[in-house]
Amino acid sequence: MDLRMSVxxxxxxxxxxxxGILGVNDPRNGGGPLLVPLWYSYRPGGLVSIETGRQALxxxxxRDAGRFSLCVQDESAPYRYVSVEGPVVGVEDPVPPAExxxxxxxxxxxxxATAYLAANREQLVDDILIRMRPERWRxxxxxxxxxxxxx
Length: 151
Fold this sequence. Notes:
Elements: H1 7-15, E1 20-25, E2 33-38, E3 40-42, E4 48-53, H2 57-65, E5 67-74, E6 80-92, H3 97-107, H4 110-119, H5 121-124, E7 127-132, E8 136-141, H6 143-147
Antiparallel strand pairs: 1-2, 1-5, 3-4, 4-7, 5-6, 6-7, 6-8
Helix pairs in contact: 3-4
């Protein structure tokens, strides 16, 4: 049974509202990956964008590696996930205010987004925006597999 998503399905899923798990090589302590949850944005066929502090460990590791991975999942059955990996194709420093606002409004309702942006105004000036072009995709949609057990 092929569990892979179509190009359209994977694009739609990645563009949906999920907390992403960023993965990047961490040469400290034997070279395992650094894995951290974060907000991200993606439009079908486009670039994955993340924001982080310019001095944050994840920013330094992504700059050094020149690439990163992002995995998103549906945590309720039937399970689905999309994992993308690719090169960094752009860094914006500082982050344009419209990008901060769009990301906050993606994850929070209007009032909470406004409050979040106001409360974090000073910290957000230390952020950078990193854009990645997805090259490698791994996907799975267990809907068809789960349907076999619903009979």
